[in-house]
Each structure stands twice: as structure tokens, then as C-alpha cells.
Design brief:
single chain; 312 residues; alpha+beta; N-terminal domain of TfIIb; Naphthalene 1,2-dioxygenase Alpha Subunit, Chain A, domain 1; 2 domains; seven-stranded antiparallel beta sheet; 17% helix; binds fe (ii) ion
Length: 312
């Protein structure tokens, strides 16, 4: 019902967002490399049906479907009514329904030898904050990604630091023993992680690079909130890997992603509870606790159960 590529009109069954925090953000709609020029695509953003595409000159165009409804696959209109702000960053088309600050920076994406590509985009029936929190959680590696990102009996998450720096959540000093940390890994390795949350629905991971000890691979998870409990999850890779093919890199990440999808879809409630007492904290959840507090303090209500609603 909420596929981006469906030729059926999108059923307008999602409540429109009224949360200014969510409205005043940049949100990703699609990897630009996956769009055909001059063709209309449809999607939902925060419950709002949108048309979008890349015009023949390579410029992004996004508009509210209520201003002009075109079936997916139609020729892209030259100047759609009520066109929305757009930008192309890190290979994705971003738009906004509000008045956002500039999008967060990823300086590594400009390094000439980095492979920068969209590893995968998948629909997940969960909220964007649940998906961010799952990405931050190392505790699930040995169980959900057994033999790849973790393995029993090495299940302990060693202590790490969490700070809010310049308005972003940073978790540093994270370490986890991984059987196969990246597609180019030849052996099991202790992998260093740094997590960053610069946006309520986007998170970035910096992890040991198997090809260059002095650098970190960068992996971004950028959620498009279609509704409060439905996202399209885009995984950006920005890696130093002179060997693997794009297909190998994508297959590796898609394998991990598809292990997370059913776990996320089975989590109840789908919206993330922000009350400190809603779900029992353990040490592995330190970054999750900081993320929830950070969302509470910014006043986000879309995709979460605010503390005031959930507190006893
Ligand atoms: Fe996972």
C-alpha cells in the first residue's frame, strides 16, 4: 500500500503530521541513482502524499500530490504547482515540509577514494525512532547477525561513552568482536564503533576499516517516515574498499538489513516510548537512553510515545 514504485495511486490512509519538529527536518525520498529522469514517482512523507522525480536536466522536483496528482510513471511536470524545497546530498534526494536547518555534514563523503553508494532501501513497518535505536544497539549482534557482526559466547557489550556534542548524540569507545565486520574482512576482528545521531530519524556509524587502519568506514541509516509506523530505510555506504564490487557490498548489507527487518516489525509498540520507565534499561542501552532523552528534549512527538503520555 505504501510502495514508492507502485503504479496504483497511494491510498491516503496515513494521518498527516502536525509535529513541527518532524516537519522542520530534511527527509530522504530516494537514492537519485535509482531514479529514471523525467519520470514521476510517488511516495508518502509524514503522511503527506508526494510526487517527485529528477527532471531531464538532472534537477530534483518534489510536490504535494494534493496540488497535482499524477500516476507513478507519468512524465514529470516541468513546473509542478507548490514545488517543495529539495537538495541532493550523499546520493539521496531530500525534501522538507517545513523550515529546516541545514542538513548534517558527512565530510568523508567528499574523499575521492571513498565508495559512496546506496546499499539498500527497504520498507519496514516500524517507526523511524525504533529503526534508529535498533541501529545503535550492539547487544543484538551475536543473536540477530550471528557469524557476521557477532557470535556467541561473546555477547557482552563493554562500557562506552555517550555524550551530546553540538546538539548531536555521540557514542564513542564502542568495541565488539566481529566474525565478518565488512564484505572485505578476511578474519574475525575486534571492531571499533562510533555512533552519531545528528537528526531524529538519521544515524551514522563509523567503524574500523579492514583496508586502512587509519580510517573509518561510514555507514548511514536515513529513515523516510512515510507514517508514524511505516518507514523506508535507506542505507548509505561511504567506505574505503578497493576490492569488493558494488554488488558484493550491497549483498552484504542487504543480508544484515533483512535480518533486522523482522525483529523491528515484531517490536511492540511500534512507536518508541520516551518515558524513562517504559522499557527496562540495561548498560547496552546507554546510547538508547541518551537518544530517547534527546528526542524528549527536542519535543519530538511523531513516531514516539511522548513521556507525558507513557509515564505512570
Ligand atoms: Fe542489526
Amino acid at each position: 500500500m505504501w510502495s514508492n514504485s507502485s503504479t496504483r495511486p497511494i491510498v491516503d490512509s496515513f494521518e498527516r503530521c502536525t509535529d513541527p519538529v518532524a516537519l522542520n527536518q530534511w527527509h530522504p525520498l530516494s537514492a537519485v541513482a535509482e531514479l529514471r529522469r523525467g519520470v514521476t514517482y510517488q511516495t508518502l512523507l509524514l503522511g503527506e502524499p508526494l510526487g517527485y522525480g529528477i527532471d531531464d536536466a538532472g534537477e530534483p522536483v518534489v510536490w504535494p500530490a494534493k496540488a497535482l496528482h499524477l500516476p507513478a510513471g507519468s512524465p514529470l511536470p516541468a513546473t509542478p504547482p507548490a514545488g517543495l524545497p529539495t537538495q541532493v546530498s550523499y546520493g539521496y534526494l531530500w525534501t522538507t515540509l517545513g523550515d529546516p536547518q541545514p542538513l548534517f555534514a558527512i565530510p568523508e563523503a567528499d574523499e575521492p577514494d571513498r565508495r559512496v553508494l546506496n546499499a539498500a532501501t527497504i520498507g519496514i513497518a516500524t517507526s523511524a525512532p525504533r529503526a534508529v535505536e535498533n541501529f545503535l544497539d550492539m547487544g543484538h549482534f551475536p543473536f540477530v547477525h550471528a557469524g557476521v557482526l557477532g557470535a556467541e559466547p561473546h555477547t557482552e557489550v563493554v562500557d562506552y561513552r555517550v555524550d551530546v556534542v553540538d546538539g548531536e548524540v555521540w557514542a564513542t569507545g564502542c568495541r565488539f568482536p566481529q566474525p565478518k565486520a565488512a564484505p572485505g574482512s578476511s578474519a574475525s576482528a575486534m571492531t571499533d564503533y562510533t555512533y552519531r545521531v545528528p537528526h531524529p530519524y538519521c544515524t551514522i556509524l563509523y567503524k574500523s576499516c579492514p583496508f586502512d587502519e587509519s580510517r573509518r568506514d561510514v555507514i548511514g541509516l536515513f529513515l523516510q517516515p512515510m507514517g508514524e509506523e511505516a518507514v523506508r530505510a535507506n542505507m548509505l555506504l561511504c567506505v574505503v574498499d578497493p576490492i569488493s564490487t558494488d554488488t558484493e557490498i550491497r549483498r552484504f548489507q542487504l543480508g544484515i538489513f533483512s535480518q533486522d527487518k523482522p525483529i523491528l516489525e515484531n517490536q511492540v509498540p511500534r512507536r518508541l516510548p520516551l518515558s524513562p520507565i517504559a522499557e527496562t534499561p540495561i548498560r547496552a542501552d546507554k546510547s538508547a537512553i541518551a537518544y530517547r532523552r534527546w528526542l524528549s528534549e527536542m519535543g519530538l512527538t511523531y513516531g514516539v510515545i511522548p513521556a507525558a503520555d507513557g509515564a505512570a
